[in-house]
Amino acid sequence: SSGAVLTSAPVYVNLPVAVDVERQSFIEIRDRADRQLITAIELLSPSNKRSGPDREQYVAKRRQLLNSPVHFVEI
After folding, report:
1. CA torsion sign, 18 to 24 to 29 to 32?
2. CB within 8 Å of 74: residues ≥ 6 apart
3. Torsional class of 30: left (φ above 0), alpha (ψ -120 to 50), beta (otherwise)
4. What pLDDT, on a 0 to 100 scale, did the predictor assign at position 70?
5. pLDDT tens, position by position, 12-60
6. Are strands 26-30 and 37-42 parallel, antiparallel or unpaired?
7. Contacts of 26 (CB under 8 A, 6+ apart)
């Protein structure tokens, strides 16, 4: 048995009205054995691009990652 279920008609479910949404601006890929960071993927936002404290914080983080053995990707 594959565990699949076939239905002849659509199945409707009720979803909660209020859903918590958590937004992440980065993805980290880590080694399973020692949890060491392998790759960091940053999803750039307008605040990362405009001058100000958010940009300064992002540039510092980027500089730290680029000076490490971690692979770094900006999208």
Report:
1. negative
2. 41, 42, 44, 62
3. beta
4. 97
5. 888 777 777 767 788 999 999 999 999 999 998 888 888 888 899 999 9
6. antiparallel
7. 40, 41, 42, 43
Q: What pLDDT was estimated at residue 13? A: 83
Quick one: CA torsion of 21, 65, 47, 52, rounded to 10 degrees? Answer: 140
User: CA 41 to CA 28: how far, in whole Å?
Assistant: 6
pLDDT of residue 68: 97
Q: Are the beta carbons of 62 and 55 closer than 8 angstroms?
A: no
How many residues comprise the chain? 75
Tell me if residue 41 falls in helix, strand or coil.
strand
Residue 65's pLDDT is what?
96
